[in-house]
TrEMBL record:
The keyword Ribonucleoprotein does not apply. Pfam families: DUF998. This is DUF998 domain-containing protein. InterPro entries: DUF998. It comes from the Bacteria. The chain crosses the membrane at residues 50-73, 82-100, 106-125, 137-159, 179-197. Keywords: Membrane, Transmembrane, Transmembrane helix.
Amino acid sequence: MRLVAWWALISSTCAPVLLVAGFTTATLLEEPGYNPVTQTISVLAAGGRSGYWVFTGTLIAVGASYVATAWGLHAAKPAGRLCLAGGGVAAILLTVFPAPRTGGSLSHGAVVGVGFTLLAVWPLLATRRGRRRAPWGLRFVPSVVVSGLMWVGAAWFLVEVEINGAAGVAERVVTSGQALWPVVVVASCLWHARRLARRRARLSVAGLQP
């Protein structure tokens, strides 16, 4: 079986591109009362807002991209692939449980918490430990570093929420980083597969020589 399906590069790339384009467009469509620095992107999917349909469609598309990437990422361990797909499902569910325009929402907060956790732990659960020849994106050390940075970003976001600071900026940075990592993993798998193919070709040619 191939390390990764070729189309996984397309699905994984779509996630960060669509996410950034989606919350940027929805922000531009919002009324002046919306502050992208202090308010979260989840608010953009609240009913009655100008950018509602734009960001709702963005969440569905990004979630579907995660699910598709998890399906095609054969080299990752099943637990990691399930977590990545689960994070995609959680993104889609945010359209069912959007953030209210004012106040909090237990259901929305629960979906966000579950979705973030799944996307933060999938790099660790997807690793191929003990295999020096594993693709770089599925090695233990890079996965630990990336997962740790995601949790640091989550702590930063919670601090900004508590102090009524730049929560919107923190959320945009964290979610964009989570969306970008699958691209790195898929690209590393494709590069690794090509390197293995070139090595096999060289060995094959060498074996044919007298």
